[in-house]
Write a structure and sequence with these properties.
The chain has 11 helices and no strands. It has helices at 4-19, 24-46, 54-83, 90-110, 112-119, 126-129, 157-184, 204-217, 227-237, 245-253, 261-278. Helix 1 (4-19) runs antiparallel to helix 2 (24-46), helix 2 runs antiparallel to helix 3 (54-83) and helix 4 packs antiparallel against helix 7. With 279 residues, the chain is mostly helical. The longest helix has 30 residues, at 54-83. This is RteC domain-containing protein. It comes from Flagellimonas halotolerans. Pfam families: RteC. InterPro entries: Tet_reg_excision_RteC.
Length: 279
């Protein structure tokens, strides 16, 4: 089935939304509208249709639909959380945000059996979980009307989407908590003597991939430097705003092809340069 074009368009629209102007509530509202439109289009392509093989059906409901549906859950929850966020002191906000994180962790604990099945990439029960017609009324799914259509839902695709959405929300909320906690600490003097004359002219996602690779290699301060401090220095030295690099790293991890796209490109280009010098 030809849903790849729809997915590419959806990801492009989502990237434009996330990198554009507007506060978080504005983006959440726009995101909900955008995702609902994409789900409706996808629903039209799938409802009443048969897949070429059962493996294709399993792949769609285990990987493709949750990829979009998770964004709907994410934006709806994000809008609810941010619209009720206390506007008082930093300590009150930290307490509120931490409570939301705990709620999402509770969901993982309450669904531990399936959570572990999904996390370890198991496939033995895929036919039961991701083929249409096997319904389970006990599932703790979000009450979205898209789930009413039996031709567009399976036993657990909604749970996969919820896990993906809650992962993204936890990353977002932890970054918010980190930022607020830094506000509570004495302001560190991070003023640089001279502004950098270097500019990152490549893709921000590529720089974030490199950033996480350097931290993972433990080549800087023996791995004791956290990602936030590294990001701050990279932003200063290369005059770039990396935005929500936690969220971008989730997108990098979810790539279906090479997860290390930029690092692979660096290796290829360095090899080409060395080969040309040897000629």
């Amino acid at each position: 089935m030809k849903y790849q074009k729809l997915l590419s368009e959806f990801e492009g629209q989502l990237d434009a939304l996330e990198s554009g102007n507007g506060d978080i509530l504005f983006k959440a509202e726009k995101g909900i509208v955008l995702v609902e439109k994409s789900i409706r289009k996808l629903q039209k392509q799938i409802t009443g249709k048969t897949f070429d093989t059962q493996a294709d059906e399993i792949y769609f409901f285990k990987h493709v639909k949750p990829q979009i549906f998770s964004k709907l859950i994410y934006y709806v929850k994000l809008f609810n959380i941010e619209s009720k966020r206390p506007r008082g002191n930093d300590a009150a906000q930290i307490k509120y945000l931490q409570l939301q994180i705990d709620k999402f962790q509770t969901f993982f604990n309450d669904n531990l059996e399936f959570y572990n099945y999904y996390r370890r990439g198991a496939m033995s029960l895929d036919e039961q979980y991701f083929v249409r017609g096997n319904r389970d009324l006990r599932l703790p799914l979000e009450s979205f009307h898209f789930l009413i259509d039996d031709q567009f839902s399976t036993c657990q695709d909604g749970t996969v989407a919820t896990i993906m959405a809650y992962d993204m929300l936890i990353v977002y909320l932890r970054k918010e908590v980190d930022d607020l906690q830094n506000n509570l600490e004495p302001q560190k003097n991070m003023t640089m003597e001279k502004p950098s004359k270097l500019f990152w002219t490549g893709n921000k996602t590529d720089l974030i991939e490199l950033l996480y690779a350097l931290q993972s290699s433990k080549c800087i301060n023996s791995g004791t430097t956290d990602i936030k401090e590294l990001a701050s220095h990279f932003e200063h030295f290369y005059n770039v705003d990396l935005g929500n690099y936690y969220h971008t790293f989730i997108d990098i991890r979810s790539r279906k092809t090479s997860k290390t796209r930029f690092l692979d490109k660096l290796i290829e280009m360095l090899n080409q340069r060395m080969d040309s010098l040897d000629e």
